[in-house]
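Complex 234.
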Amino acid sequence: MHQSKEERVHRVFETISAHYDRMNSVISFRRHLKWREDVMRRMNVQKGKRALDVCCGTADWAIALAEAVGPEGEVYGLDFSENMLKVGEQKVKARGLVNVTLIHGNAMQLPFPDNTFDYVTIGFGLRNVPDYMTVLREMHRVTKPGGMTVCLETSQPTLFGFRQLYYLYFRFIMPLFGKLLAKSYEEYSWLQESAREFPGRDELAEMFRQAGFVDIEVKPYTFGVAAMHIGYKR
Ligand SMILES: C[S@@+](CC[C@H](N)C(=O)[O-])C[C@H]1O[C@@H](n2cnc3c(N)ncnc32)[C@H](O)[C@@H]1O
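Predicted structure with S-adenosylmethionine bound:
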């Protein structure tokens, strides 16, 4: 039976939610923690502001944003997988945060009015949606004028030699980790397929421009295995 990309992605995350955090660290050799820290440092989030984390999953970025904006600020996390959100809710509760609201929704149609947020983020989420441009335009729409949208995502390494090794790792080794640790080879194959199809740094910067963002900043991580893009709304 034919399954749309959206249905497949939804099933993948509903299935792996309990293993997601641990697998992230295994497959990226814990590098993702450093990338996330660096992105937050560059964003320099101010107290009392309002932020939205799209495709928030188990809520790590939403929690980091909530701690940065402080009790007088407000953070929303949005995801379409109820199981991922449940893991996120437990973490929010364990930290006693009252300024985070996790909501069930679709990144393709954000349930917020125009010009609502100072910061809009998406971490390892854009790769998963049916249409990258629709989501980037939605993120632009809900960003306030002068506010920023930030994407942290897998990217395409450019260094010859490293690039080839990376693709071998991603294609053949990483899904095996998935099979051994999360007992779900098929689900982790999705990660390598979606990462291979995702645009490189320059192409994504151009998509940010097309979505209406200006002053785009790009930062590659670990030889370009991942990249951060920041765009501002005029
Ligand atoms: C790889 S996880 C990233 C989670 C989290 N942002 C992080 O950095 O760890 C991707 C998340 O995107 C969510 N997702 C994928 N497509 C979506 C869509 N169209 N609307 C809302 N959430 C979506 C999945 O349910 C999953 O939780």
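The longest helix spans residues 162-182.
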